Amino acid sequence: MKSFFDLRGQLVRLAFGENPFPQEPKHVFVLCRYRDRWLLTDHKKRGWEFPGGKIEAGEDAKDAAVREVYEETGGVVDRLVPIGQYQVFDEREAFVKKIFFATIREIRQRPHYHETNGPLLVDEETLAKPLNDRFSFLMRDSVVAESIRYLKENRLPDILSPEGSENGKG
Q: Which EC numbers does the record give (predicted)?
């Protein structure tokens, strides 16, 4: 388990595995891959970020992840893999976000993208560099970098190869 402070000064604990924290996640965060690029959304207030949001009443985390990806980007999830969770301690409470990796089958045009300006595709190199102010604060702490490192180390399941993502299997 890794601990660090985010850009707002809140303690964050990050762990990989199915359910590393005793409390149920209330939010999802989805690292999305479409062909050989990362699929982000352009949040109207926060900037560029991976899709995610609250788990609604009667919804499980996987359903929330699929819904959030579609609402915020038009992305249709092909495969969805839970990779970990992170716990944030804010001034009121501690809450948990479940982290998923998703491969995207297609991106559909939508009449609106809820609180975002829609999809944004970025290459591997863009996320490998220090992220600037165009990116949401959610992208500029250790969660994204550590999650991508975890995906690469575990070849989950060979998802970062362009061949795997181009043919709809990765």
A: 3.6.1.55
